């Protein structure tokens, strides 16, 4: 089955080409139907691949064919299925199917409906192809393609200035990371002469990666950190996280698919895929861990006070991605990937549920919602499942993965990171239930909008239900009850001494994290459900701290001041140089030529005999020179 | 022993060629310019015929080439004079200087 | 100085002087019609040189085509245009000086080259292969140079048709 894994990305590509041929006026039913069916087929194949990889791990090897030869290097393209890939294929294709189905309802009536599906299919193709790339070069190509699709989809409603700006911002900020990734790939290529994962990792493990100016150990650290920079950009880690909240200007299904479940997880996947490299460099690993921990905490703090429902969830995504990075950084490879999976389910669920709410109310402001439980019971229940999973309440999916990460952090001696994670967990529980209470309980704050709110059709509710089920039970893939099935699965192909494979369950820690989560929920309930505490008062009494969170730690402003202002200053200098020095030289050259031309104008008399005379002189000179060089004449 | 030295014949051709060149470069009347070019062609013909009789490899080919040259010259002068007539009909002049279409 | 005594030598010098004299007259005449007469002299002198060199057929062809046809053609052209035309008195303009310098220098270079070359002795060579000259030329034309010969005849046809088309009076010319 594994050798048919190439079909998985191919099917969405077929859908994309098909939609492209159908054009912009294609009926919605056909567009969505074809997309969903083909992607679902891709999901089925993925599931079969996943199973057969688990059964016979020896047939996963890269299937490549020769692409081109440059000098002495030859490049290959193809695909490779590892246990990690197989899991990613399943997650991506499953979430994609559900989101494509959901979009049918959400985007109904949009005049560029087919275009939206084209972009989505292109994205799904790119993402799946990224996952099964057997070498870094191919990965980079699809890495850029998912970035492009993200750009197109964030800016889908390009006529909204914010959307156009957000699209540009997301593209440019992730590019900063991409430069790092690209540099890292080139560095590894220079040192090893190959883009293939296995070749690079083998050479790194054998201490053979060195260039004239850098030793093996330093090169591995440098390359790993550069690759991580790419992941930081794509996975919206601090300090490059600023694009993700703005990217919420895109349609909500896009946020669910790209900016929660798949593309932003590509950074985590990349680090996981290059894990053998990271393991060789403790410095790189601890960089990953600290960046992840800081991101988890920072984003959770910001999420506490945001008013926009999607932005809260976006910061939550950043925070959860931080958790995954932290897990990878402290060595808990399997838990990072496990959390990636559960997060994909419950975060896609939260986004889609939020999308359902937005679809019903046509607003994203939390303080214009309220009391929706009565009108949208299904959305409320599914959202609650996602929220509980996110908050890490037993037995929902998020509990198992998050708890594992925290335990691994503590066990590997990163106490500070553990504390960060615990605080973030508290904040997480608080902010997500703040959203829940503000949206679904209490009285409608905007009766006019509330009036015509209603549940979406089955295409919108079915994905919610499926995801809610997954968010509820998804954690049981990897519990003591099934002997840590996922861990054993994942470690079949990367057994290189990663810790966390069989962390003994620590019931004390589990209880503590559940208690922290419940405390967060309790505080949210006190403030927004049964108002015992006035949020406004609390905000006022916290004053500066509240502003710090509400203004997102002023990071956008700081970036603006530093990066944009510096950029403008440099641009001014460059402008001056260009305008007066480069252009000056150009004008000088032009003027010299023009002057020469003006002078030569007088030789162009139009008298044929004058020209002939000059030609005769030329002949004379040539003949004389020829005679001279023969010699014996003159 | 052939009585006429090769150098003398070639010198005649060379001088005739230079006279023709000067005429072609300076004469104002288009007909005379054409005539001067004929002069240059004749100078070349003298060389061809000379080398068909004297020089390193005397050969009848020189005379054949001279014939070809004469033929081409005949065609050339016919076309040239036809052009001249056409120009004269439009411009009412045969002066080379007046055929300048450059705008200063 | 003994070679001055033989007749062909004397004949050559006379003819050469005649040719050069005609050429110089061509340059110095003012009236166009006299120039045309001078060129006729040059053509006839050249024909004499050819015959002197044993190239009888070329000499006769030269007489017929150049001295006969082309000179007459030029005369007609002059008559059809402004036959009273005269070159203005010679003026030493910059271009004339430059042209003269170019011509004189080119001549000097050529003469020097001719002078400094060692020519093989002027032996009696039989280039006609035992035939008379016209027969030899004819054989060469139709044996070795058939294709060029046919091409030249094509050229003549094209030249003739072109000349007719160019010289023809056209309606648009009359309208001007």
TrEMBL record, chain A:
One of its GO terms (biological process) is ATP synthesis coupled electron transport. It comes from the Bacteria. The chain crosses the membrane at residues 6-23, 30-50, 84-103, 115-133, 139-159, 171-191, 211-233, 254-272, 284-305, 312-338, 344-361, 381-400, 415-437, 458-477, 507-529, 610-628. Its main location: membrane. Residues 67-117 form the NADH-Ubiquinone oxidoreductase (complex I) chain 5 N-terminal domain. One of its GO terms (molecular function) is NADH dehydrogenase activity. Coiled coil: none annotated. Keywords: Membrane, Transmembrane, Transmembrane helix. Residues 133-427 form the NADH:quinone oxidoreductase/Mrp antiporter transmembrane domain. It holds the Pfam family Proton_antipo_N. InterPro entries: NADHpl_OxRdtase_5_subgr, ND/Mrp_TM, NU5C-like, Proton_antipo_N. Belongs to the CPA3 antiporters (TC 2.A.63) subunit A family. This is NADH-quinone oxidoreductase subunit L.
Automatic annotation (TrEMBL), chain B:
Its EC number is 7.1.1.-. Pfam families: Oxidored_q2. The keyword Translocase applies. Its main location: membrane. GO terms for biological process: ATP synthesis coupled electron transport. It is found in: Cell membrane; Membrane. Gene3D superfamilies: 1.10.287.3510. The keyword Translocase applies. It catalyses: a quinone + NADH + 5 H(+)(in) = a quinol + NAD(+) + 4 H(+)(out). InterPro entries: NADH_UbQ_OxRdtase_chain4L/K, NUOK/Mnh_C1-like. GO terms for molecular function: NADH dehydrogenase (quinone) (non-electrogenic) activity; quinone binding. Keywords: Cell membrane, Membrane, NAD, Quinone, Translocase, Transmembrane, Transmembrane helix, Transport. It is a multi-pass membrane protein. The chain crosses the membrane at residues 6-25, 30-52, 64-88. PANTHER family: NADH-UBIQUINONE OXIDOREDUCTASE CHAIN 4L (PTHR11434:SF16), NADH-UBIQUINONE OXIDOREDUCTASE SUBUNIT ND4L (PTHR11434). NDH-1 is composed of 14 different subunits. Subunits NuoA, H, J, K, L, M, N constitute the membrane sector of the complex. HAMAP family: NDH1_NuoK. NDH-1 shuttles electrons from NADH, via FMN and iron-sulfur (Fe-S) centers, to quinones in the respiratory chain. The immediate electron acceptor for the enzyme in this species is believed to be a menaquinone. Couples the redox reaction to proton translocation (for every two electrons transferred, four hydrogen ions are translocated across the cytoplasmic membrane), and thus conserves the redox energy in a proton gradient. Belongs to the complex I subunit 4L family. This is NADH-quinone oxidoreductase subunit K.
TrEMBL record, chain C:
One of its GO terms (molecular function) is quinone binding. It comes from the Bacteria. It is a multi-pass membrane protein. The keyword Transmembrane applies. It catalyses: a quinone + NADH + 5 H(+)(in) = a quinol + NAD(+) + 4 H(+)(out). GO terms for cellular component: plasma membrane. Its EC number is 7.1.1.-. Gene3D superfamilies: NADH-ubiquinone/plastoquinone oxidoreductase chain 6, subunit NuoJ. Keywords: Cell membrane, Membrane, NAD, Quinone, Transmembrane, Transmembrane helix. The chain crosses the membrane at residues 6-27, 34-53, 59-80, 92-114, 147-167. It is found in: Cell membrane. Belongs to the complex I subunit 6 family. NDH-1 shuttles electrons from NADH, via FMN and iron-sulfur (Fe-S) centers, to quinones in the respiratory chain. Couples the redox reaction to proton translocation (for every two electrons transferred, four hydrogen ions are translocated across the cytoplasmic membrane), and thus conserves the redox energy in a proton gradient. This is NADH-quinone oxidoreductase subunit J. It comes from Alicyclobacillus macrosporangiidus.
């Amino acid at each position: 089955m594994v050798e048919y894994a190439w079909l998985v990305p191919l099917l969405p590509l077929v859908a994309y080409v098909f939609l492209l041929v159908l054009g912009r006026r294609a009926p919605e039913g056909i567009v969505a139907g074809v997309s969903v069916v083909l992607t679902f087929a891709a999901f089925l194949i993925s599931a079969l691949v996943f199973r057969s990889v688990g059964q016979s791990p020896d047939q996963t090897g890269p299937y490549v064919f020769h692409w081109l030869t440059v000098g002495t290097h030859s490049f290959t393209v193809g695909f490779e299925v590892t246990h990690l890939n197989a899991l990613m294929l399943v997650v991506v294709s499953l979430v994609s199917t559900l989101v494509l189905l959901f979009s049918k309802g959400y985007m109904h009536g949009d005049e560029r409906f087919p275009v939206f599906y084209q972009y989505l299919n292109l994205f799904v193709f790119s993402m799946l192809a990224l996952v099964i790339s057997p070498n870094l070069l191919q990965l980079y190509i699809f890495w850029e393609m998912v970035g492009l699709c993200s750009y197109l989809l964030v800016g889908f409603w390009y006529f909204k200035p914010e959307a156009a700006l957000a699209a540009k911002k997301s593209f440019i900020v992730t590019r900063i990371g991409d430069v790092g990734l690209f540099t890292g790939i080139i560095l590894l290529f220079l040192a090893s002469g190959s883009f293939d994962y296995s070749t690079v990792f083998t050479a790194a493990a054998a201490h053979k990666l060195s260039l004239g100016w850098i030793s093996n150990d330093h090169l591995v650290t440098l390359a790993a950190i550069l690759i991580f920079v790419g992941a930081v950009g794509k996975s919206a880690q601090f300090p490059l996280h600023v694009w993700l909240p703005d990217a919420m200007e895109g349609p909500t299904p896009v946020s669910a698919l790209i900016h929660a479940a798949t593309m932003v997880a590509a950074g985590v996947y990349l680090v996981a895929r290059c894990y053998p490299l990271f393991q060789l460099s403790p410095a790189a690993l601890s960089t990953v861990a600290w960046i992840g921990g800081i991101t988890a905490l920072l984003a959770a703090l910001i999420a506490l006070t945001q008013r926009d429902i999607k932005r809260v969830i976006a910061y939550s995504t950043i925070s959860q991605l931080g958790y995954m990075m932290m897990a990878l950084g402290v060595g808990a490879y399997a838990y990072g990937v496990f959390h990636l999976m559960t997060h994909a389910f419950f975060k896609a669920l939260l986004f889609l549920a939020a999308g359902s709410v937005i679809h019903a109310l046509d607003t994203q402001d939390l303080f214009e919602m309220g009391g929706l439980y009565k009108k949208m019971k299904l959305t409320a229940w599914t959202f609650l499942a996602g929220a509980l999973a996110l908050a890490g309440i037993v037995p929902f999916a998020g509990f198992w993965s998050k708890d594992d990460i925290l335990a691994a952090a503590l066990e590997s001696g990163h106490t500070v990171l553990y504390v960060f994670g615990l605080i973030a967990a508290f904040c997480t529980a608080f902010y997500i239930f703040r959203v829940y209470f503000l949206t679904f309980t209490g009285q409608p704050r905007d009766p006019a909008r509330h009036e015509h709110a209603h549940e979406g059709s089955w295409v919108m509710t079915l994905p919610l239900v499926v995801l809610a089920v997954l968010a509820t039970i998804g954690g049981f893939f990897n519990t003591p009850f099934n002997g840590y099935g996922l861990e054993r699965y994942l470690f079949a192909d990367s057994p290189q001494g990663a810790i966390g494979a069989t962390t003994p369950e620590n019931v004390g820690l589990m209880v503590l994290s559940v208690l922290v989560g419940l405390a967060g929920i309790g505080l949210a309930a006190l403030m927004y459900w049964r108002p015992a505490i006035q949020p406004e008062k609390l905000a006022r009494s916290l004053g500066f701290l509240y502003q710090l969170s509400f203004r997102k730690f002023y990071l956008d402003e700081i970036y603006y001041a530093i990066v944009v202002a510096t950029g403008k200053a440099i641009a001014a200098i460059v402008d001056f140089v260009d305008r007066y020095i480069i252009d000056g030289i150009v004008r000088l050259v032009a003027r010299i030529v023009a002057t020469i031309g003006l002078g030569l104008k007088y030789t162009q008399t139009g008298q044929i005999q004058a020209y002939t005379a000059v030609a005769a002189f030329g002949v004379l000179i040539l003949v004389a020179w020829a005679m001279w060089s023969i010699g014996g004449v003159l | 022993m052939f009585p006429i030295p090769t150098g003398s014949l070639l010198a005649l051709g060379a001088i005739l060629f230079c006279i023709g060149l000067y005429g072609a470069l300076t004469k104002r009347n288009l007909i005379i310019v054409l005539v001067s070019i004929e002069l240059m062609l004749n100078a070349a013909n003298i060389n061809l015929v000379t080398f068909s009789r004297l020089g390193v490899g005397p050969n009848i080919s020189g005379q054949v080439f001279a014939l070809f040259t004469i033929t081409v010259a005949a065609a050339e002068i016919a076309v040239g004079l036809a052009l001249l007539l056409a120009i004269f009909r439009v411009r009412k002049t045969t002066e080379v200087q007046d055929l300048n279409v450059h705008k200063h | 100085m003994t070679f001055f005594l033989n007749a062909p030598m004397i004949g050559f010098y006379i003819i050469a002087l005649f040719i050069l004299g005609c050429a110089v007259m061509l340059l110095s005449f003012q009236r166009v019609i006299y120039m045309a007469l001078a060129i006729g002299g040059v053509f006839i002198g050249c024909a004499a040189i050819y015959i002197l060199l044993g190239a009888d057929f070329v000499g006769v062809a030269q007489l017929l085509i150049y001295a006969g046809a082309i000179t007459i053609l030029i005369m007609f052209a002059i008559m059809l245009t402004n036959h009273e035309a005269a070159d203005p008195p010679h003026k030493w303009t910059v271009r004339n000086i430059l042209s003269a310098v170019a011509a004189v220098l080119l001549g000097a270079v050529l003469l020097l080259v001719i002078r400094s070359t060692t020519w093989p002795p002027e032996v009696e060579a039989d280039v006609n292969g035992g035939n008379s000259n016209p027969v030899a030329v004819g054989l060469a034309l139709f044996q070795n140079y058939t294709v060029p010969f046919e091409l030249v005849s094509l050229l003549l046809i094209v030249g003739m048709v072109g000349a007719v088309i160019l010289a023809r009076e056209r309606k648009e010319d009359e309208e001007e």
